[in-house]
Amino acid sequence: MSEVRIIGGQWKRSKLPVATKPGLRPTSDRVRETLFNWLGQDLVGWRVLDAFAGSGALGFEAASRGADEVMLLERDAELVRSLKASALRLKAEQLRVECTDALGWMTRSAPARFELVLLDPPFGQDLFEAALRAATPLLVDGGLIYLEAPDLIAAPPELGLEVWKSGRAGAVHYQLLRRGDNPGV
Questions:
Q1: What average pLDDT score do residues 109-128 get?
Q2: pTM for the complete prediction?
Q3: pLDDT tens digits, 44-84
Q4: Distance of alpha carbon 148 from alpha carbon 120, whole angstroms
Q5: CB of 96 closer than 8 Å to CB of 16
Q6: Distance in angstroms (rounded) separating the CA atoms of residues 143 and 139
Q7: Structural domains in the chain?
Q8: How far is CA 59 from CA 50, 69, 81, 96, 115, in A?
């Protein structure tokens, strides 16, 4: 078992446990710091979905920076127990954790619900386009999707997403996509 630390906000320097699981690679401190510099340090009023939560590093970071509601989706029951224990320890009342398949949950969810959707699906399962398709309707106008992948992923044009910011750290490509008004979804 290793750990990641929250890098900003009310729980700055708090540690989250990371189970040793195949394919589980928490977003690095450097990439999270870049992402939250792009987003701004204060997410008060934001509703955030961390669709492939894993260690919870992205979702907890958003909650630490004041997001009003953070939903973490994870299908691995052991990781869900760990996420719930961390939420309880930090008294993260705005954070909810569900043991579920992220793609199925997003497909069934009400539209225009979130200002930010965090997508860091398992790299070996090629879920990137499916995740973008499922996440886009969940965004409010002008909402953002963060996508982490081993390669630069182009969003299908019909989704109405534009690359707002992008970067690379080692073998990880990451980008922030903005939903324009009236996408064709």
A1: 94
A2: 0.94
A3: 999 999 999 999 999 999 999 999 999 999 999 999 999 99
A4: 5
A5: no
A6: 5
A7: 2-20+28-179 (3.40.50.150)
A8: 5, 10, 15, 10, 13
